[in-house]
Amino acid sequence: MDAIDRRILTALQRDGRMSITELAAEVGLSPTPCARRLARLERDGLIQGYGARVDQAQLGLPVSVFVWVELETQTREAIDAFERAVRAFDRVMECHLMTGSRDILMRVVAADLSDFDRFLEERLMRVPGIRSLRSSFALRTMVRRHVLPVS
Protein backbone atom coordinates (compact mmCIF):
# COMPACT_ATOMS: atom_id res chain seq x y z
CA MET A 1 0.00 0.00 0.00
CA ASP A 2 1.47 3.31 -1.06
CA ALA A 3 0.59 6.96 -0.44
CA ILE A 4 -2.05 7.02 -3.19
CA ASP A 5 -3.80 3.96 -1.72
CA ARG A 6 -3.80 5.73 1.64
CA ARG A 7 -5.35 8.84 0.08
CA ILE A 8 -8.02 6.67 -1.56
CA LEU A 9 -8.86 5.04 1.78
CA THR A 10 -8.95 8.39 3.58
CA ALA A 11 -11.20 9.98 0.95
CA LEU A 12 -13.63 7.04 0.85
CA GLN A 13 -13.89 6.88 4.64
CA ARG A 14 -14.90 10.52 4.59
CA ASP A 15 -17.36 10.09 1.69
CA GLY A 16 -18.04 6.58 0.42
CA ARG A 17 -20.53 7.86 -2.14
CA MET A 18 -18.09 9.88 -4.22
CA SER A 19 -17.86 8.91 -7.87
CA ILE A 20 -14.71 7.37 -9.29
CA THR A 21 -14.14 10.63 -11.17
CA GLU A 22 -14.31 12.67 -7.96
CA LEU A 23 -12.10 10.17 -6.14
CA ALA A 24 -9.54 10.16 -8.93
CA ALA A 25 -9.37 13.96 -8.95
CA GLU A 26 -8.96 14.05 -5.17
CA VAL A 27 -6.08 11.57 -5.13
CA GLY A 28 -4.36 12.86 -8.27
CA LEU A 29 -5.03 10.03 -10.71
CA SER A 30 -7.05 9.56 -13.85
CA PRO A 31 -10.25 7.52 -13.40
CA THR A 32 -9.05 4.22 -14.92
CA PRO A 33 -5.94 3.73 -12.73
CA CYS A 34 -7.95 4.93 -9.74
CA ALA A 35 -10.66 2.35 -10.46
CA ARG A 36 -8.01 -0.40 -10.72
CA ARG A 37 -6.53 0.59 -7.36
CA LEU A 38 -9.99 0.73 -5.80
CA ALA A 39 -10.82 -2.75 -7.15
CA ARG A 40 -7.54 -4.08 -5.69
CA LEU A 41 -8.22 -2.52 -2.28
CA GLU A 42 -11.67 -4.14 -2.29
CA ARG A 43 -10.32 -7.51 -3.50
CA ASP A 44 -7.55 -7.48 -0.86
CA GLY A 45 -10.10 -6.82 1.89
CA LEU A 46 -8.86 -3.38 2.96
CA ILE A 47 -12.23 -2.02 1.87
CA GLN A 48 -14.80 -4.40 3.31
CA GLY A 49 -17.96 -2.71 2.10
CA TYR A 50 -19.95 0.50 1.86
CA GLY A 51 -22.90 1.71 3.89
CA ALA A 52 -24.75 4.66 5.37
CA ARG A 53 -24.11 5.87 8.92
CA VAL A 54 -27.54 6.20 10.52
CA ASP A 55 -28.27 8.40 13.53
CA GLN A 56 -29.02 6.02 16.38
CA ALA A 57 -31.18 8.49 18.34
CA GLN A 58 -33.26 9.57 15.33
CA LEU A 59 -33.90 5.89 14.59
CA GLY A 60 -35.48 5.59 18.04
CA LEU A 61 -32.59 3.80 19.74
CA PRO A 62 -30.94 6.59 21.76
CA VAL A 63 -29.66 4.41 24.61
CA SER A 64 -26.26 2.71 24.43
CA VAL A 65 -25.53 0.11 27.06
CA PHE A 66 -22.14 -1.50 27.62
CA VAL A 67 -22.52 -5.03 28.92
CA TRP A 68 -19.68 -6.99 30.49
CA VAL A 69 -20.18 -10.74 30.24
CA GLU A 70 -18.33 -13.34 32.25
CA LEU A 71 -18.66 -16.87 30.90
CA GLU A 72 -18.81 -19.97 33.07
CA THR A 73 -15.87 -21.43 31.13
CA GLN A 74 -13.48 -19.88 28.65
CA THR A 75 -13.10 -22.85 26.32
CA ARG A 76 -13.05 -22.34 22.58
CA GLU A 77 -16.40 -24.16 22.37
CA ALA A 78 -18.02 -21.92 25.01
CA ILE A 79 -16.77 -18.75 23.33
CA ASP A 80 -17.91 -19.97 19.90
CA ALA A 81 -21.37 -20.88 21.25
CA PHE A 82 -21.74 -17.45 22.87
CA GLU A 83 -20.64 -15.73 19.67
CA ARG A 84 -23.15 -17.68 17.57
CA ALA A 85 -25.93 -16.74 20.00
CA VAL A 86 -25.24 -13.00 20.10
CA ARG A 87 -24.76 -12.71 16.33
CA ALA A 88 -28.52 -13.28 16.11
CA PHE A 89 -29.27 -10.24 18.32
CA ASP A 90 -29.62 -7.14 16.12
CA ARG A 91 -29.40 -4.88 19.20
CA VAL A 92 -25.78 -5.96 19.76
CA MET A 93 -23.77 -3.43 17.77
CA GLU A 94 -20.34 -4.57 18.93
CA CYS A 95 -19.09 -7.61 20.79
CA HIS A 96 -15.45 -7.98 21.80
CA LEU A 97 -13.57 -10.86 23.40
CA MET A 98 -11.48 -9.19 26.10
CA THR A 99 -8.54 -9.86 28.37
CA GLY A 100 -8.89 -9.54 32.13
CA SER A 101 -11.49 -10.69 34.63
CA ARG A 102 -14.47 -10.23 32.33
CA ASP A 103 -14.56 -12.14 29.08
CA ILE A 104 -16.73 -10.12 26.73
CA LEU A 105 -17.71 -6.48 26.25
CA MET A 106 -20.77 -5.64 24.15
CA ARG A 107 -22.44 -2.42 23.07
CA VAL A 108 -26.19 -2.80 22.91
CA VAL A 109 -28.68 -0.20 21.66
CA ALA A 110 -32.17 0.28 23.08
CA ALA A 111 -35.13 2.63 22.90
CA ASP A 112 -35.22 3.10 26.68
CA LEU A 113 -34.56 1.27 29.96
CA SER A 114 -37.63 -0.94 29.62
CA ASP A 115 -36.58 -1.93 26.12
CA PHE A 116 -33.12 -2.88 27.39
CA ASP A 117 -34.68 -4.84 30.27
CA ARG A 118 -36.77 -6.83 27.76
CA PHE A 119 -33.65 -7.53 25.70
CA LEU A 120 -31.85 -8.79 28.82
CA GLU A 121 -34.67 -10.99 30.05
CA GLU A 122 -35.91 -12.34 26.74
CA ARG A 123 -32.65 -12.68 24.84
CA LEU A 124 -29.31 -12.27 26.57
CA MET A 125 -30.10 -13.97 29.88
CA ARG A 126 -31.29 -17.04 27.94
CA VAL A 127 -27.88 -17.63 26.36
CA PRO A 128 -26.35 -20.71 27.99
CA GLY A 129 -22.92 -20.47 29.60
CA ILE A 130 -23.11 -16.97 31.12
CA ARG A 131 -21.84 -16.69 34.70
CA SER A 132 -22.54 -12.99 35.20
CA LEU A 133 -23.62 -9.79 33.43
CA ARG A 134 -22.80 -6.19 34.36
CA SER A 135 -24.30 -3.23 32.50
CA SER A 136 -23.30 0.41 32.27
CA PHE A 137 -25.39 3.04 30.50
CA ALA A 138 -23.65 5.67 28.40
CA LEU A 139 -24.74 9.15 29.43
CA ARG A 140 -23.40 10.68 26.24
CA THR A 141 -20.91 9.88 23.52
CA MET A 142 -17.89 12.14 23.76
CA VAL A 143 -15.97 10.81 20.76
CA ARG A 144 -17.15 8.58 17.92
CA ARG A 145 -14.96 8.17 14.90
CA HIS A 146 -15.78 6.40 11.68
CA VAL A 147 -12.51 7.26 9.95
CA LEU A 148 -9.46 5.14 10.76
CA PRO A 149 -6.06 6.85 10.67
CA VAL A 150 -4.38 5.84 7.43
CA SER A 151 -0.79 6.88 8.05
TrEMBL record:
PANTHER family: LEUCINE-RESPONSIVE REGULATORY PROTEIN, TRANSCRIPTIONAL REGULATOR AZLB. One of its GO terms (biological process) is response to amino acid. Keywords: DNA-binding, Transcription, Transcription regulation. This is Lrp/AsnC family leucine-responsive transcriptional regulator. Residues 1-62 form the HTH asnC-type domain. InterPro entries: ArsR-like_HTH, AsnC-type_HTH_dom, Dimeric_a/b-barrel, Tscrpt_reg_AsnC-like, Tscrpt_reg_AsnC/Lrp_C, Tscrpt_reg_HTH_AsnC-type_CS, WH-like_DNA-bd_sf, WH_DNA-bd_sf. GO terms for cellular component: cytosol. The lineage of its organism: Bacteria, Pseudomonadati, Pseudomonadota, Alphaproteobacteria, Rhodobacterales. Pfam families: AsnC_trans_reg, HTH_24. It comes from the Bacteria.
